[in-house]
Design goal:
The protein has about 180 residues and is of the alpha+beta class. Helices cover about 30% and strands about 30% of the residues.
């Protein structure tokens, strides 16, 4: 097994938050200031009931991808931001009985190999909820293509998060996610 081979499994994201944010910084283009802010956010999210995380690690133990999420709670900040957009589109019910993919990132050197697909299907397979929701930058991208291939559809577009320079799309899919590629 070499550095190109990865294993997907549960990860103690609180213990490996800096490793995960290093992956996210490269994959998503975060500044040092954004990393500091996100570190606190990730650690706070992990305290939510039902929060879970999975990682993609190399044989040497290097984290090259991660996903985490939790059952949606309408009192959370994210739900409050997206609710008016979903309500306007008649899809607000997706906020109930949904598992939220909070973050999914794969190091660019490991993208295009099915790592992201395996991370998201593994974490959603552990959910007993009937559907999954997430937000992604509202542009055509490999990430949006992956989500569509897994059955996610646009529930709302041009969603503006405070302090985010680009608009997002909220996407949802019934669970379990399909295994076709």
């Amino acid at each position: 097994m070499d550095d190109a081979d990865v294993t997907i499994g549960p990860v103690d994201l609180a213990a490996r938050v800096d490793d995960a944010l290093a992956v996210q910084a490269v994959a998503f283009g975060l500044s040092e200031d954004e990393i500091v802010v996100r570190r606190h956010i990730v650690l706070r999210h992990l305290l939510n009931p039902g929060a879970r995380a999975y990682g993609a690690t190399t044989a040497s133990g290097r984290l090259v991808g991660f996903v985490y999420g939790m059952p949606n709670d309408r009192t959370h900040w994210w739900s409050g931001v997206v609710e008016p957009y979903l309500r306007a589109n008649g899809t607000v019910d997706w906020l109930d009985d949904s598992f939220v993919i909070t973050e999914l990132h794969v190091h660019p050197a490991h993208q295009g190999r099915g790592v992201g697909r395996e991370l998201i299907t593994t974490i959603t397979d552990q959910s007993r909820l009937k559907r999954s929701i997430l937000s992604a930058i509202d542009t055509e991208s490999p990430a949006r293509g992956l989500y569509r291939s897994l059955g996610y559809v646009d529930l709302a577009r041009m969603v503006h998060f405070p302090s985010a320079p680009r608009p997002y799309a909220v996407m949802g899919a019934p669970l379990p996610l399909p295994r076709t590629q």
